[in-house]
Structure prediction request, 221 residues.
Amino acid sequence: MLNNITGTVGRLAGPVGKAAGQVAEAGGSIVGIRSGTEEPSFTVVRRFGDVEVRKYGSRIAAETVIDANEETARSEGFRRLARYIFGGNKGSKKIAMTAPVAQAQGQKIAMTAPVAAERGDNGNWVIRFFMPSDKTMDSLPTPNDERVRLVHVPGEQVAVLRFSGVAKPEVITAKTAELLTTLRDNDVYAAGEPVTWFYDPPWTISFRRRNEVAVSVAAIS
Prediction:
């Protein structure tokens, strides 16, 4: 799911090492055919060329804050959150893997604030895993790692631009600029900071990888 963690999952020991097996099963095969991985439901509100405006309902996510560069933050954030969903929690419960995993830049998220990674003024990134839709705050186990927390993600309208390939920082920057330009050209303006969503495990072959850059927008019809 995170493009810069190739080989990382395979090196993880204990509960996190089990992530490779479940992610591979959810992905369908090593060539990256996804099957059975839950994604947040949405409705499409508008389309502007390759940009799709979607309406998402509220969700729950596990998130962690990383003080590192963009790619290192993805790798470390994935490891922390993988530990949580593969048993690093009170009761040692396993939680199904979902997609996407996300990363974004913006202000540091408050303790009560989704998948995302946001970058604060001090360079922090927030990485998030969305939780399965049948889970609630009461039914989800408490993380063993105090750096992992569960948060509500409010419903929102999000403009999304999909792309394939390896989502390197320079590619993400270019796709984000394309997304924002398309919105401005259609008199739609961002209501938050851009986010990058990753849907596939790192061993997925490049052209089959699904990535998206997204940004919240004011409600439109």
About this structure: The domain at 8-217 is CATH 3.20.80.10 (Multidrug-efflux Transporter 1 Regulator Bmrr; Chain A). The two ends are 32 Å apart (CA to CA). Residues 1-33, 106-118 have pLDDT under 50 and may be disordered.
